[in-house]
Amino acid sequence: MQGNGFLEVAGIPLLLFAVLVYYGVRLWIMKDVTIVRGKHKPPVKDEAMYVKSASLLILFLAFATLVMAFLLFMNTYAALGEFIAATLIMGILWHRMEQKYGG
User: Fold this and answer.
1) How far is CA 95 from the centre of its chain?
2) pLDDT tens digit string along 8-24?
3) Could you give the number of structural domains in the chain?
């Protein structure tokens, strides 16, 4: 690859990685559940555990996005499969977290 080949292949996953890390760390530091729940939803049962679980799940997806960015250079289908699997895992774990700690 020449010049900007790296960014052409991995630019969008790297941008998604940066956004997910930003929101995961912001949620962890600020402990404001309205970042991910919105202001119209009822309060959560256990805010501390909700924040911890949600931020870890967001950071998990960020790490999976970073892995996908590097897999794109080896096999596009493997990268897509890895990201779909990570998204499904996060969705299932997010649903369980909402049931356990959500309002």
Assistant:
1) 14
2) 777 888 899 999 999 99
3) 1
Residue 60 and residue 20 in contact, taking contact as beta carbons nearer than 8 Å: no
**Distance of alpha carbon 97 from alpha carbon 60, whole angstroms:** 14
Q: Is 17 inside a domain boundary?
A: yes
Tell me, yes or no, whether 92 lies in a domain. Answer: yes
Q: Which long-range contacts (CB under 8 A, 24 or more apart) does 9-12 make?
A: 9/72, 9/73, 10/69, 10/70, 10/72, 10/73
Q: pTM, whole model, 2 decimals?
A: 0.87
Q: With pLDDT > 90 as the criterion, what percentage of the chain qualifies?
A: 63
Domain that holds residue 15: 9-101
pLDDT tens digits, one per residue of 27-64: 999 998 888 888 888 888 999 999 999 999 999 999 99
Is residue 19 included in any domain, yes or no?
Answer: yes
